[in-house]
Amino acid sequence: MSFRERTARGRLRNATASGFHWLDARLPAASAGKLLRKAFPDHWAFLLGELALYSLVVLVLTGVYLTFFFDPSMVEGPYQGAYEPLHGTRMTAAYASTLTISFEVRGGLLIRQVHHWAALTFIAAIGVHMLRIFFTGAFRRPREGNWMIGLTLFLLALLEGFCGYSLPDDLLSGTGLRTADTIMGSIPVVGTYLSFFVFGGEFPGHDIIPRLYVLHILLVPGVLIALVTAHLILVVHLKHTQWRGPGRTNANVIGQPMFPQWLVKSTGLFIVLTAVFAVLGALGQVNPVWNYGPFQPDQVSTDAQPDWYVGFLEGALRLMPPWETNLWGHTIMWNVFLPAIVLPGVLFAVLYAYPFFERWVTPDRDELHLCDRPRDQHTRTGLGVAAISCYAVLLLAGGNDVIALVFGLSINALTWVLRVALVVVPPLSFLVTKWLCLALQHRDRERLTEGDETGLVRQSAYGDLTEDHQPLPAAQRALLLSRAAPRPLETAPGEAAAALSRRRRLQLSLSRWYYRDRVTFPATRPGARPSATVPDRDAAPRP
């Protein structure tokens, strides 16, 4: 290497170092280097949150495009656009601009449908992501705050979806707005005033579409993006959870670095997801508003069904008996207030409080960064499956008229069947799920003590037949033995049972109910005598 080349390289190194120090003095450049080496566990379940994130990105991009052409005005006039079947029909500017986007703007229908498919995927991805967090216990300390942020994101996604669904002002979305008006009016004392404030007067008013437009493109997306940012910052700050396994502890994270492995994989996921949305938008028709016609207050769309994420509210309204109470000239509509206001309020209050409830009945108060297998936390898994089964029954009830028509059933008989199912199916699902989880724990115990079957049968000199087994691999054995199985809470030394407060008695009772059924795992080599087995240190004795 010549002297001139060495001098040029030296100047390049000095310039690079000077530029980095200049940048680091103004931005956290040095910290960014550590962030790029952050480890991310390599498992498909951790990509569910990224599906929600990238769906939001597609929503923002397509939403910006649609904003250029949508008119949220409720001023009515005759339609003279490209869709001839509606020529001369009086409609609002909001509905007319939706038709213009669909039939006259280049690529407008494609972008509309991509936007709708991305919205459905966004809400579904958040829901499935939160189910993964719930069933694996990833909401526990120190992530209670992130769990609450995720729930708030889910609520805002529901609101954002409802606002966007209502903007075209077609007959189907107008039916949904009528239902929303009825729900607001069912709130005792303030319901009528709230409805007048939201709609700007008597339903349907002249202000609801512009107000929903502001919520849909400005307020709710701003809060969503802010909460998503806070959520990601907490994920980085609190460390990523990971599945149990050899070498994985609460003090480390084993996985791929953010750059380049995780970044390349994540970018590929974004490209594939966007391509799927494009294919769905081109081939899968969704929300054909031109078939419904403009909203008319005296008309209701036949077979009106809301999007799936609010279908459970529709089902709750249909299953509720027609209970009303007249007090001092005022009617309290229990048949609307209980299923549409009280039910979702109680549901989300329980979800917000659940991490603190589980911590209250659990003796272990340390930070937990390892995910549980659902079978090892049978009570939590049973509660989650019971909630899913309740949602499924309500979702079916939301389409009871269509189900009765298609299968030739009595809608009254079907409604009563679903009412009984709403009471019977969730507790039955809890018991069956808990039984299956305990059965799977027993199966894991058998695999630890006896090993896996090889398919061979041995015959002794005395004629006895025995199945041949082989020991589990070390990694699989370590995975089964690394489960967390806390004991129920017990009274402290010197704490007299008669002197316990009601709150303490309730805590002990709930802890026993939550953790009493346990399968004790051995810690011996396969084939050892059962009498020689020793329970692992985390397992509680089986009652």
Looking at this protein, list some descriptive labels:
543 residues; mainly alpha; globular; two-stranded antiparallel sheet; single chain; disordered C terminus
Structure explained in plain terms:
It is a single chain. With 543 residues, the chain is mostly helical. Helix content is 60%, strand content 7%. The chain contains 18 helices and ten strands. It has helices at 3-26, 29-36, 48-67, 93-103, 108-136, 144-166, 171-185, 191-199, 208-238, 258-283, 289-292, 311-319, 334-361, 378-397, 400-407, 411-450, 474-481, 502-515, and strands at residues 39-40, 76-78, 90-92, 242-243, 256-257, 324-327, 330-333, 370-371, 452-459, 465-470. A two-stranded antiparallel sheet has the order 1-5. A two-stranded antiparallel sheet has the order 2-3. Strand 9 (452-459) and strand 10 (465-470) form a beta hairpin. The longest helix has 40 residues, at 411-450. It is globular. The relative contact order is 0.09. Residues 524-543 have low confidence and may be disordered.
Summing up helix and strand content along with how strands pair, one would put the structural category as mainly alpha
Kindly report the spatial arrangement of strands forming the biggest sheet: 1-5
Strand residue percentage: 5-15%
- What is the averaged pLDDT score? 88
- For the record, give the distance between the C-alpha atoms at the N and C termini, rounded to a whole number: 79 Å
Rg over CA atoms, rounded to whole Å, is 29 Å
Shape designation: globular
- Could you describe the largest sheet, including whether it forms a barrel? 2 strands, antiparallel
Number of β-strand runs:
10
Question: Would you list the SSEs in sequence order as H and E?
Answer: HHEHEEHHHHHHEEHHHEEHEHHHEEHH
Query: What's the helix count?
Result: 18
The percentage helix is: 55-70%
Low-confidence stretches: 524-543
